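Subject: Interface between my chains keeps coming out wrong

I've been trying for a while to get a sensible model of this assembly. When I model each chain on its own everything looks fine, but I need the whole thing in one frame so I can look at the contacts. Pasting all components below, labels as-is. Any help appreciated, I'm running out of ideas.
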Amino acid sequence: MHSSHHDHDDENVYDALSTADDDGRWAFGTGFDAGTAEITAPVPDGVDRDDLAAYCLMLADDALIAAQRLSGWTAKAPELEEEVALANIALDLLGQARVLLSRAGHLGAAEPYRAGPQDDEDVLTYFRDDRGFRNVTLVESELGDFGRTIAWILVLSSWRLALMQRLTASSDPVLAAVAAKAVKELTYHRDYAAQWVLRLGDGTALSHARMQAGLDAVWPFVEELFLPHAVERRLVDAGVAVDPEQLRAEVDAVLEQVLPVATLTRPEKPAVGLVGGRGGRDGVHTEALGGLLALMQSLARAHPGATW
Amino acid sequence: MVTALVDARTAAEQVVDPEMPMLTLADLGVLRGVETGDDGTVVVTLTPTYSGCPALDEMRHDLRRALTEAGYAKVVVRTTFSPPWSTDWISDEGRHKLAAAGVAPPDRIGPRAAGGPVPLTLVAPSRTVACPQCGARDTDETSRFGPTACTALRRCRSCGEPFEHVKEI
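Reply #2:
Try treating it as a single job with all components included. I did that and got this:
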């Protein structure tokens, strides 16, 4: 341990763990309140508190579910370097999710799910059912092989980067602060994906075919990224949110830059249908979310409040 | 009763980074404020290097421990995201310490131009990073993602040694 130069730590390594803080650590979260200064910022004038909470939850859930999905590559990526890369991307997204979940919780979003003493971000992560999640369905979709994973990261990071870059001008200080940090991270996530799309698309016949198949598989989830939800529409008017329809041109420009060089064809595939006009932003998800949540939540639900 | 042995700022600044222990938190540029109240409370404000920096929790524990040992009765560690940390916040002394430990320090990048889409460059950046072992400038990036969120992996073509580089953000 890096702190073991203190004499009293050397007597019993477990003492050092248990006395590192006054409180035990909750087993399934960080066990500490992030204490982020920005979380408690007042709701901007003229903005509905519930709308702001819902919007924070949408952006948080996109990142949280994407991080959980990407973590599935841990211990089975094709090379150690790629495993580290995918885990790092997941970690950045998880960090973005945590602040946004805390902000949503501060605005009341965790209350319907609270059953114990956990922090808001943990309540929202572990004790919500699928209908409570507000992520776009792209992030819950299966990653398949490495080619599909790379297509998924390219689309997700290009879209979220365009969104976050605009959100740095949000009138909500928490969203603006999260966005300023996220822009730096998403820029190199997109670089990573774009470079792999080139390498695989313009590689061997096999890598080309699998990269194209991966892009085709991700394509039906793209259209939903640009559909504004009623909450987003109201918050755009208040200067808080970004209109997702505005992001289409920028994402298209990235794909037009990358795909021809990678000798790939822009897919022509129908979008995943909304159910009665409702999609992921309304809590109407694909079958893939259930399995992902079971893996993410089951242990915490089996041992609520466990500490170590 | 307050019996502070060391100035709170000095105590906080000497805490080392858990992942790059050659650097103190002051060298890394993540300490945004150390304020002492009349009742012996110290409020330390930290900023994370990356949104998901896993070392943040350890930094909080280490700060709390160091300040408690320095005689402060109550220690509160807060985090702030704004303005976002950049590798430009790493001090000159920190850069020397990184290089001495075999880790290539980041270049200074200056403020990012505001507004407009972030451009995508399809070729890997041709940034010149000198090998911290032999000083040669002929080095390649092998992976943008290294063992910690802050570092990339590189290899020196002259001496053949792999090394970590604190990547510019």
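Reply #3:
Confirming on my end. The mean pLDDT of chain B is 87.
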